[in-house]
Amino acid sequence: MSSPTEQENPAEPAPASLTPGERSAPSREEPLVAAASRPIGGPLGEHAAVGRHWFWTPQRVGLAMAVLALMLCWFGKASCIQQYTDDSGQNQLDWRAGRPYVAMCYSDIVPLYSAERLNQDGTFPYKTSWVDNAGTPSAQVRYMEYPVLTGLFQWVNAKLTAGWTAISSAGWLPGALPVAIYFNITAFWLAAAWLVTVWAVGRTANRRPWDMALAAISPLVLVHAFTNFDTLATAFAATGLLAWARRKPVLAGVLLGLGAATKLYPLFFLGPLLILCVRAGKFREWAKTAGTTVVVWLAVNLPIALSLNAGWREFFRLNAQRGMDPDSLYNVISYFTGWAGFDGPLQPGQTPTWLNAVSGVLFLLCCAGIAYVGLTAPRRPRLAQLCFLVVAAFLVTNKVWSPQYSLWLVPLAVLAIPRWRLLLGWMLVDALVWVPRMFYYLGTDHKGLPEDWFLGFVVVRDLAVVGLCALVVREIYRPDKDKVRFDGVDDPAGGVLDRARDVFVIKPRRTRQPVPQ
Which stretches are transmembrane (predicted)? Predict the structure, then answer.
């Protein structure tokens, strides 16, 4: 069934740095960009002096666009850190009358400041505990619910908030409610992480540096950059891919390991890397990256796991016991069919065994299908293509799809399928799911939306992501349709895989045609 073969494109030295004339020009190739460029002179001319400006490089333009998008995101969330003076003369956070949902400014950062006991002196993540629903049969002991690096990130920001508050009390800094200061400090670091993400995408894209603008101005960034802490993970994931592209497997492992200690999804990149390295005979490089990833993850986690085991296990316990998310495919099926087969309503501490099994098996089946695609394609797929498929498969099959998780897909989609109109359309649809979600949480008693309207938008979002996956698979089997591989380019993010020979492929069996009589 399998045999060593030679790849169609023989091994060649990596191309030298691209000249300005070899760069992709979106205003020539993308109708949307061409139309948008008309107010400033139209598409790039054939004799334009490209790459000559002393300051405004594609990287700096992209980062400036990202700064603008992050500013707009902050203004969108700022309504949720407004304060008012109550009847007793105390300043309070103004979340009256469903403000987080009506203004659509909700961010997990704000309620977690007190929910995770970060506002109290002498607390430490994974050590400090509290009891939810105390005095009831459903009472539970709780700890910090995030992976180690994300938990420590929140704790450090809380300490910075305490320091800022102390200095502002002395009149040296402007003052505000501690939770507002905490949000702003956290948002600053999250914005820096997204800028790193955009920078890494631009560097990895190589001859298509302007594609980073898709990540910089993504509608998903406008809505979700400060919804949770996910830009930390995207920064580690994107820089990990960049390190691999620069043929630094150990550094890639360090960054992916740190990313996995922030959110687990960067670990999924090791699967596509394994498939492609097996196909190209580069298993040693994969082993370096995978081994370093595991060592770094253990180095971050073991000190907490050994000394504060109960708190460290909280993240895994909650994920195992968590029911289906309102945004998940399982909730859509359960609502529209009335079927309660996904374990139904859960009691506190009860694990949705059937739901966990179904989501896990579906994801593994998707991974097996992606591995088959990677080993049977006529030309070895690009790394970004398989990484996008794996992360998208996880989100679609997972029981939880928190809205900010869609940020994980943005850098991968830009590198995998840089089709501007298509990606901006998907990102706009995905970002707009936030509107019915907020009004669904507002409740119909407060003029909110019924659940079926919200779930209808979820279905459209899921179909859009599945459609992107189908396009990626089509371009894998039809590499001549792949925009990245224009003019003989192989895989800008491939690193040691770029222009390497195949040593192992699977040739699908062909049905024998009947011999005409």
Answer: 179-201, 213-244, 250-278, 290-308, 353-377, 422-441, 453-473
In angstroms, the CA 65 to CA 106 distance is 24
The proportion of the chain whose per-residue pLDDT surpasses 70, expressed as a percent, equals: 85
**C-beta separation of 250 from 292 below 8 A:** yes
pLDDT tens digits for 419-438?
999 999 999 999 999 999 99
CB 263 within 8 A of CB 234: no
Residue 91 bridge partners (DSSP): 85
Cα distances (angstroms) measured from residue 235 to each of 135, 241, 278, 360: 42, 10, 27, 26
Surface-to-core class of residue 27, CB atoms within 10 Å of its CB (0-12 exposed, 13-18 middle, 19+ buried) = buried
**Among candidates 405, 400, 395, 403, which has minimal Cα distance to 468?**
395
Q: Tell me the sheet residues that pair with 140.
A: 132
Question: In this structure, what token pair is assigned to residue 311?
Answer: 């708190």
106 residue type, one letter = Y
Name the nearest CA neighbour of 51 among 24, 69, 90. Answer: 24
Structure tokens at 329: 């495919």
Nearest one of 16, 15, 18, 25 to 47, comparing CA atoms: 25
Q: What is the model's pTM?
A: 0.89
User: Contact 208/416 with Cβ under 8 angstroms?
Assistant: no
Our CA angle for 434, 402, 226, nearest 5°, is 65
Phi-psi region of 133 (alpha: psi -120 to 50; beta: other; left: phi over 0): left
181: tokens are 């200061």
Mean of per-residue pLDDT scores for the chain = 87
Residue 170, amino acid: A
Place of tokens 């289906």: 324
> Helix or strand or coil: residue 298?
helix
Locate the domains of the chain by residue range.
2-10+56-506
Distance between CA atoms of residues 384 and 94, nearest Å: 43
Can you tell me the distance from the alpha carbon of 152 to that of 149, in angstroms, rounded to the nearest whole number? Answer: 5
Closest CA to 406 of 386, 421, 427: 427
